Amino acid sequence: MSGTAINVIGGTLVETRKYDVLGIGNAIVDVISHSDDTFLKNNGLAKGAMTLIDAEAAEGLYRRMGSAVESSGGSAANTIAGLAALGGRGAFIGKVRNDQLGGIFAHDIRALGVAFDTAAATTGAPTARCLIFVTPDAQRTMQTFLGASATLTPADIDADMVRASAITYLEGYLWDPPPAKEAFEKAATIAHEAGNMVALSLSDAFCVDRHRADFLRLVEGFVDILFANESEILSLYQVDDFDAALQRVRGHCQVAALTRSEKGSVVVASDEVHVIDAVKVPKVIDTTGAGDLYAAGFLFGLTQGRSLHDCGRIGSICSGEIISHYGARPEASLAELVSQALR
Amino acid sequence: MSGTAINVIGGTLVETRKYDVLGIGNAIVDVISHSDDTFLKNNGLAKGAMTLIDAEAAEGLYRRMGSAVESSGGSAANTIAGLAALGGRGAFIGKVRNDQLGGIFAHDIRALGVAFDTAAATTGAPTARCLIFVTPDAQRTMQTFLGASATLTPADIDADMVRASAITYLEGYLWDPPPAKEAFEKAATIAHEAGNMVALSLSDAFCVDRHRADFLRLVEGFVDILFANESEILSLYQVDDFDAALQRVRGHCQVAALTRSEKGSVVVASDEVHVIDAVKVPKVIDTTGAGDLYAAGFLFGLTQGRSLHDCGRIGSICSGEIISHYGARPEASLAELVSQALR
């Protein structure tokens, strides 16, 4: 497809769909605490990464973790929460258990006006949680127990909801649990058959490492809009140089939005390249959710018919807000921040 | 008792006790969200107050509440958490249910090094939660479902723990559920029999209104150290004038620490009156826990043998930290803040 096709997003496609973006991802409650490098080292945690852990490891680590705060999380869920906070029409598919944390997750996303109807599991593992250790340098290290969210199956994919969404947005993390991966492919197929678009976030460089062949196939064959940070896109193409990765991705999907932390982001389409500055924040407190909220802003712009450059700017504004406080769900009014900046 | 007796707190009494302060109170998880005055009005919520609600009302209100963040709370529990963060030796008695929120409460207080051994209820109401609506003026409005915490009974009072604590600190809120009130009186009696001190926070002007006669009797007969804010102390003595309340309380307990928001605090003992400035913060974000953390700082100072004036200053520093962010548990290192200020 060409750069022109993207403009359709703001037109007929969005107008004739009930939802702007449907997110499909792990339904997780974040457990956030302050930490230091010594704790990470003593507990053998890979700083800056997302590592999957089982129930027993999660319990042991939680016992050693400091006093924490709980907040709904999940990568794609954060993105849809951000989209809704901007005024977009969001929907979400993900699996919780019918326990207290599941109730919190469902409440928080619905409270933002997001359609969330996936049936909660009534047996089996509890709702997923992600133990997040934020070090003084604002880096976050994540240890995730997938719990009930790993039991998402193709049966949970509401085909009508996928058809009713201009963009179906998938998180790479969903590739980890095998039945969720099938759900992921089912959703992407339905979306395309309905003439909708498919977006993917690569999630994490280690996640790319675990599923490189699959992700390459997906990006080439399925994905219209790709989100990745620098280390993820380098890992995908196994290159050392950002520009080399940029050239590779350019031919593979319609739009790629590549984030580079304090260096901002680069948005590439077949015939366009936009370099967008990061939004300066007084103090970076916690980088959790930076990529998720960039995607929220970008997808909101896209479904509002904004130029790719503006989409990138909106993404930067949203990620700037999220890194200026603890947690991956917005505290300030994103809609106000964006309307002020783009006035 | 005279002002001199208070100095004992820093000496033999503290040295011969395992814990500096034992808090007894409701074991609650806070559910904190941003709100506005219109929401409070539409839902008939009494701004600035703590109102008790039943399970059904809590569920209905939660459904209407915005996206939230969960954090361990409870008035006396916040105080003990603050004391522990300052380096004090804390213990806590309060009742949770053996559910996910109960697990969160227990984890958070133990993670700070606080001794917390009260058996969780295995049947009945779930762990208590307090729905907190923070308005843009930083005021918090609290709607509390007491749940399992209302099932605290005298049997839950670990007499050895009370004997081993230099100060037993009770929250006025505990007076609401009748069996907890008996537990409260049992603890105060054991504490005094062991030669320890009893501290009380009046908690809330409406709470004082509900239990005025009991509180007057307690303050005169049981309480060595009283914490109250301006509206609470005016309500207790049913006077309109702060100075009149000050004169009344002076003869009733050994020390009274009266907080007055941005006007700072006044500490009175039989022969001393100290006026302490509030600590200036760049922006007041959320006043939840201001009184709880003032008490934490004050009690920490007292058990460290500090002068009453210093105790008030440490209280102000701690409440200044807590009102500069959302939530009632400290984010910054209180110990560092205090050691810098008192250097």
Give your account of this protein's structure:
2 copies of one chain form a homodimer. The first copy, chain A, has one domain (3-26, 73-124, 148-341): Ribokinase (UDP-N-acetylmuramoyl-L-alanine:D-glutamate ligase, 3-Layer(aba) Sandwich), CATH 3.40.1190.20. Helix content of chain A is 42%, strand content 21%. Chain A contains 14 helices and 14 strands. In chain A, α4 packs across α12 (290-303). Chain A is globular, with a radius of gyration of 18 Å. Chain A starts with a helix and ends with a helix. The A-B interface holds A 34, 62-63, 65-72, 81, 99-101, 104, 107-109, 111-112, 126, 326-327, 329, 331 and B 34, 62-63, 65-72, 81, 99-101, 104, 107-109, 111-112, 126, 326-327, 329, 331.
Short précis:
By secondary structure, chain A is an alpha/beta fold. Chain A has helices spanning 3-15, 37-42, 55-64, 75-85, 100-111, 159-163, 178-193, 205-210, 212-221, 230-237, 242-250, 290-303, 308-322, 334-341, and strands at residues 19-24, 28-34, 50-52, 69-72, 90-93, 115-116, 128-134, 140-145, 165-171, 197-201, 225-229, 255-259, 265-269, 272-276.
Output the keywords.
343 residues, alpha/beta, 9-stranded mixed beta sheet, 21% strand, disordered N terminus
SSE layout:
Two copies of one chain form a homodimer.
Chain A: H1 3-15, E1 19-24, E2 28-34, H2 37-42, E3 50-52, H3 55-64, E4 69-72, H4 75-85, E5 90-93, H5 100-111, E6 115-116, E7 128-134, E8 140-145, H6 159-163, E9 165-171, H7 178-193, E10 197-201, H8 205-210, H9 212-221, E11 225-229, H10 230-237, H11 242-250, E12 255-259, E13 265-269, E14 272-276, H12 290-303, H13 308-322, H14 334-341
Parallel strand pairs in A: 1-5, 1-9, 2-7, 3-8, 5-6, 9-10, 10-11, 11-12
Antiparallel strand pairs in A: 2-4, 7-8, 12-13, 13-14
